[in-house]
Amino acid sequence: MPDRLSALDASFLYLEDATTPMHVGGVAVFERPREGFDFEQLLCLVTQRLGYLPRYRQRVLNVPGHLARPVWADDPDFDLNYHVRRSALPAPGREEQLFDLVARLMARPMDSERPLWEAYFVEGLAGDRVALVTKTHQAVVDGMGSVELGQLILDATPQPCEPYEDTWVPRRMPSAAQLVLDALSETVRQPGELVENVRAFVGDAAATAGKVADAVGGVVRALARPAPSGPLNTHVSGGRVFAVVRTKLSDYRAVRALHGGTVNDIVLAALTGALREWLLSRGETVQAETVLRALVPMAVLEPGTVEFSPAGLVNNQVEAHLVDLPVGEPDPVLRLQHISHAMRRYTDSGRSVAARAMLKVGGFAPATMHSLAARAAGSFSGRIFNLVITNSPGPQQPLYAGQARMTEMYPVIPLARNQALAIGVTSYAGNVYFGLNGDRKAVSDVGNLAAMVEDSLDELKGTHW
User: Fold this and answer.
1) Which among 17, 37, 196, 301 is placed 20 to 30 Å from 11, CA to CA?
2) Domains and CATH numbers, the chain
């Protein structure tokens, strides 16, 4: 039987165009150890781990006439040096230069005739640091057969890369005639599939994605009212801007001790305050009842599951929830209370996964969780939300790529069509890192919004201090 893409995976390919590439990204910053950490060592590490990710050496083959969904096939021309690339920042290697490079890399679609992932080893960052920028298509990371590369190359202790002989041999690619024959055989068993495949390919992919939303545990219903209008729902250009925020996890815990709620609630409240100030700075009308609707994907447990585990993670259980962010509320504590109340019905459902449970997953699971969250968000019509916010807790102990310690990690969540801003949040080693991915035309001032997140958190901290 052919290894055919699921309806959801195929919809991500059909929905993709030049202005909305459907890949999830990550930016990891490393300190160079005394032993060094160079491009050859990264290649060695990736080569060692690639055997655990067979999808990363497979490409997508379309079926002639689109009689069936595409299939995965081993790429006989797989070239690791094409996918793992070397780059460098010009002096003085400021972080702004790195994030500008990230924005340009994320705006660029990937070659559909090769495996759908890329990694960039970026040298020249000030302070004798290097960065690893990853791009992985949403069709690749399904949480079942494949996780995100960033999860697999990180270890809890420094690990020297030993010489490794790659014995992988690609399987023979199916011919066009075999693809058609397989498709016709399946059509005989399921004739309705042919109509759906053609509809999706010729432009009705949004309907196809909506029909398979349950594949990622989505609970957003078609009857949801349209999202409020505003500057975040606009035509997306081909350019991107990227900004980051660094905050201390201890600050969120201090706010929680004062005002209650969860760390996730406080993250959303800090973003809500920042979005309020950002709207006001742009001259937007903000009234007491003004809200922005966020699509907030959350990890969930299968019914009857006692404890979250790595097996639970790879069962693709992510639910996307709609949360109205009260940007019209001027009081930061009331904003937090509104959000905590809205989130409580999800956290009290018995299915949501607590942060402490997710931390038991081996590797840097947030990389995979953000990918699954982006898949969940991509399953729904952009008309019902204004922006995507993903938040995945990470381990609080240092992690290493080879012998290089990772010091920072920022998610890069893709933009959907007519959605100008997506925010990913990850906690790691005592800090909380935000990655803000925006459209270069509609949200050119994303750096201002990033600074406002810090101000909003300070406002929550200082309310009664």
Assistant:
1) 301
2) 216-461 (3.30.559.30)
